[in-house]
Backbone:
């Protein structure tokens, strides 16, 4: 990504994405992988993610509004995001 910045159509935006968005995600995942060393720690983290996803969906369904044929919750205007969270983590939730 960094090598392609000078050849992009919008070099400033490409630099912003490569340095401030992509590298921060790489650093996050590197720290995550280096801190999780046992299977028990991984299971605890995944359990926390499943619980937080469950509470997010429940509060979204309780506090969400249905206006103009669309479901709104907070600043999220796409109900597909809410469904994606619920469905993508459902196999892990079944495991727990």
Residues:
């Amino acid at each position: 990504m960094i090598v392609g910045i000078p050849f992009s159509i919008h070099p400033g935006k490409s630099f912003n994405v490569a340095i401030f968005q992509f590298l921060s995600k790489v650093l996050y995942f590197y720290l995550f992988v280096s801190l999780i060393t046992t299977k028990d720690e991984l299971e605890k983290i995944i359990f926390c993610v499943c619980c937080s996803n469950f509470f997010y969906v429940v509060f979204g369904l309780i506090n969400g509004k249905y206006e103009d044929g669309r479901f709104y919750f907070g600043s999220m205007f796409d109900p597909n995001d809410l469904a994606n969270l619920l469905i993508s983590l459902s196999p892990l939730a079944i495991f727990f």
